[in-house]
Structures are given as C-alpha cells and as structure tokens.
UniProtKB/TrEMBL annotation:
Residue stretches making up the DUF2249 domain: 3-68
Name by which UniProt lists this protein: DUF2249 domain-containing protein
Cited Pfam families: DUF2249 (PF10006)
C-alpha cells in the first residue's frame, strides 16, 4: 500500500499515516511519500513498535517503508 502525502501541510501527513497504520497487520507494509523528512513520525513509530526504512528521493521527497513487527 502506498500513501502519497506530498503537498499536504503538517500535521496532515502524520495523521493520515497513523490512521492507515491502525489497520496494518503483521507482514504488511505501508510506503509513505512525504515532502520532508517526517521526524515526529519516527518517534511515534518507535513507540508503537513499527519498523521503518527512510530513503531520500532524487526530487527531495522522502519515501518511508513501514512494517509491523511480527509477533
């Protein structure tokens, strides 16, 4: 599942991402694309027990791959 958050003002990208993550099951992945690095989201992901990988894209946006820890 891919969620494109580009063009949205904070806190919309984080709110949309957290809402999608509520339904993410173990083994599933959510990819988000943001205009900027989602620093505050990382804290939430750590607290909620998600794994994530962040990659800056050539256009300056950030692609974050998020998955739920198994078990």
């Amino acid at each position: 599942m891919i969620l494109d958050n580009r063009g949205l003002e904070p806190p919309q990208p984080m709110m949309r991402t957290l809402a999608k993550l509520e339904n993410l099951e173990a083994g599933q992945t959510l990819i988000i694309i943001n205009d900027r690095r989602p620093m505050f989201l990382f804290e939430q992901l750590d607290e909620l027990g998600f794994l994530y990988l962040t990659e800056q894209q050539e256009d300056g946006s950030y692609r974050v791959t998020i998955s739920r820890k198994a078990g």
